[in-house]
Amino acid sequence: MRFLSRFFAPAISLLLLSCTGGEKVIQMPSLDGIGLSGHYAGQIGERLFVAGGCNFPDKPLTEGGRKAFHDEIWALGDKGWDLMGTLPEPSAYGAYLCSGDGILIMGGANANGSLDKVLLLSAENGVEELDPLPKPLEQAAWYDDGERLFLAGGLSNGEASLDILEYGDGNWSVIGTLPRPIVQGVATMSGDTLFIWGGFDPSANEAVTGACALNLKTGEWSFRETDITFVGSAPLDGYAIGGCDPEIFTNALGLSGEELHDYRIQAPEYYRFRGELLQFKDGGWTRVASSPHLARAGAAAAFWQGGIVSVGGELKPGVRTPEVWMITLNNK
After folding, report:
1. Is 332 exposed, middle or buried (0-12, 13-18, 19+ CB in 10 A)?
2. Do 235 and 187 touch, CB atoms closer than 8 A?
3. Is the distance from CB of 291 to CB of 263 less than 8 angstroms?
4. Which of 10, 138, 145, 310 could form a cystine bridge with 109, CB 3.0-4.6 A?
5. What is the pLDDT of residues 39-94, one digit of tens each?
6. How many beta carbons lie within 10 A of that of residue 168, not counting itself?
7. Phi, psi for 189 (deg, rounded to 5)
8. 262 φ, ψ (degrees, to nearest 5)
9. pLDDT (tens digit, 9 = 90+) per residue, 174-196?
10. CB 84 within 8 A of CB 71
């Protein structure tokens, strides 16, 4: 379905919250009352687009609700969010980034399993289907250095993938193997080193802190320590928004039955989602801004109008928010 060719300057509400370093968090129009996680976001032309995602639309997770996957494509206009089209099929948890005047979506998942589709969303051509990934892949880390595109880890139809995939010269190739499974990792680069920050390890049933670092010239691995995990963080070209608490997330992986139900019914503050925008700089992470409105898991992130936008995400397990927030950046 082709996008409409209308482009408006969207209205922004006037709720401003001060952050560290002089940045501000600006509340924008909510996503038409729809709370999503695992969705995709980016700028096409002058407009902010959001596509796909998943939620529990009929009944809450705590009442036995079933997860639904979505195919809608939305764009922010001067009167709110406009429905612009649909993806070829429902999709969430894929890798995504802005590419030229479009949004590239790689892999993902829906109720039928992991996806290998690669899609390009653009104002000119709508939704184009490109050559697929070498295998179905979801919840992988991704990074684009301007010449090469990397996908690392994730799941392929329920099985952990250890592959480091690189796209260059029109082809995908496997350039390395992760030392351990990492799902929902965040990828960054410094010089010739590709960092894959955890994430969680489904084989060990634990959140991963720190990074596996691959020297792209020598093929050697090293490790970098941090005290946080990037499970649930929204990555964006060296930035990361929100994410889970490693201790609480790890403890939850071992729960079942009544204990799992009790875990899911806690107030949002219990889960200690990280309300921060972090930036990877000089080989490490620094805090750019902090706000309770960034304490989300599974939000989508995009550069837009000189800032970074955080769209939706979980307030707590199973509960999504339609709220959209933009963080101004003094250095942009």
Report:
1. exposed
2. yes
3. no
4. 138
5. 999 999 999 999 999 999 999 999 999 999 999 999 998 889 999 999 999 999 99
6. 12
7. -135, 150
8. -65, -35
9. 999 999 999 999 999 999 999 99
10. no
